[in-house]
Design goal:
This protein is an alpha+beta fold. The chain has 2 domains: about 1-30, no CATH class; about 35-240, Alpha-Beta Plaits. It has 7 helices and 11 strands. It has helices at about 5-15, 60-70, 110-115, 140-145, 180-185, 190-200, 215-220; strands spanning about 20-25, 25-30, 45-50, 85-90, 100-105, 120-125, 130, 150-155, 175, 200-205, 235-240. It has a 3-stranded mixed beta sheet. Strands 1-2 form a two-stranded antiparallel ribbon. Strands 4-5 form a two-stranded antiparallel ribbon. Helix 2 (about 60-70) packs antiparallel against helix 6. It is globular and about 45 Å long. The chain starts with a helix and ends with a strand.
Amino acid sequence: MSEINRRKFLEGLASTTAGIAIAPGVLLYTTQAKAAVEGVSSAVRWGLLVDANKCSKDCNACVTACSKENGLVDNGRPTTDPQWIRKVDLKDKKTGKETSLPMMCQHCAEPPCVDVCPTGASFKRVDGIVLVDRHICIGCRYCMMACPYKARSFVHEAVTDQKPDIPRGKGTVESCSFCVHRVDQGKSPACVEACAAKEGAMTFGDMNDPKSEISQQLAKYPTTQIRADLGLDLGVRYRGI
């Protein structure tokens, strides 16, 4: 094949929406995930601050709201049911202090899941939100192994009654998206909205804007990044742990 014909072949391959079978039952789609959508700006860095002092152990409002918003179904199988937010209980061995906090995708500035994804399905938007393009996810689960926070779920069963703004599919990986469909409409994530009505432990906003509430909270109070030693520059910060 000449170099010109080879180039045309590759260009055609990159533009098609058909799939290439790389293993029985697995299709590698050649469409490319986009790192940004119209209106998304790198001047913004979306972030979430969780005040563990206000997060009670018996409150699961954020988990319930996330499942309802994104169409996640609890089949009573915690090892296989998708869960984008989970409550984690911590206990200080020295003081005995117990803390409960929500754990989700930390929306890293340097996301390991993106580094290991072979198809580009895992990507980070320019505003800091880390997402999965299910159309080109081949379900290899490398991202799940790379995530230090165990924040990703694999869809084991067929998905029915999907919501238009949240495409999901069997054999793909998914995780907290900061309810990106809501953020792009100027709203807060569902978990933040639900928490505000219960305990007010979550603050969401632009960490690059010094006038935003989250920026003022981060400047005023000491906060923690989970596994800060990894140097991933997280979009989720915790106070009181």
